[in-house]
Amino acid sequence: MVKTLILLIYKDQLVLTGKLNDVGNYTRINVPNSYRLGIELQGGYIFNKWMNATANFTLSSNKIKSFTEYLDNYDDGSQKPVQHSNTDISFSPSIISAATVNFLPFKNTELTLLSKYVGKQYLDNTQDNLRMLTGFYTQDVRVSYTIKHLLFNEWNIVGQVNNVFNTMYEPNGATYPYIYGGEVVNSNYYFPMAGTNFMIAVNVKL
């Protein structure tokens, strides 16, 4: 097993705001003081000649020590500053993990289970639960078969089913909070991923 400890202390780190500009790109701002602290574990194990596995797990704390949010007030045309402290950096989940299990049941055949988990993350730097992407788990299955020295040096035929359990999730999005009618309105936009889907591919080595 490999262990990696990471500590990054930033001055004026450039972070995502959670908003999109007029051409659909994410906007960024500098925040005075922030840090990223985490540990990553990686490992693998060969059970026998027909089964092996690898996995990784990351646990982190990604914080902005002090942050000022500016809310557009549509009631009077002003901007309202809101001070925040010790909030999560946007789009920075504290838990990320993945695992791969490989089976080799027959000659030239490989069956692979691909698992991924991403914890909750926030659409902006306010750590507001009303501007949050919930955590998600996905499971993919891949089967590959290799044929050698048939016209070409090698054929690799791959079939993969993605999101086997048809998980409905959004790994990304945007938010535009503002004040209207004396209340804060959170206009959130989500980028949903496909449900269960599949692909077939043929790779050829000359």
Structure description:
With 206 residues, the protein is an all-beta fold. It has one domain (2-205): TonB-dependent receptor, beta-barrel domain (Maltoporin, Chain A, Beta Barrel), CATH 2.40.170.20. The protein is built from no helices and 13 strands. The protein has strands at 2-20, 26-48, 51-73, 78-88, 95-103, 109-118, 121-122, 132-133, 136-150, 152-162, 172-180, 183-191, 197-205. Strands 1, 2, 3, 4, 5, 6, 9, 10, 11, 12 and 13 form an 11-stranded mixed sheet that branches. Strands 7-8 form a two-stranded antiparallel ribbon. The chain is elongated and about 75 Å long. The protein starts with a strand and ends with a strand. The relative contact order is 0.15.
How are the SSEs placed, and which strands pair?
Elements: E1 2-20, E2 26-48, E3 51-73, E4 78-88, E5 95-103, E6 109-118, E7 121-122, E8 132-133, E9 136-150, E10 152-162, E11 172-180, E12 183-191, E13 197-205
Parallel strand pairs: 3-11
Antiparallel strand pairs: 1-2, 2-3, 3-4, 3-5, 5-6, 6-9, 7-8, 9-10, 10-13, 11-12
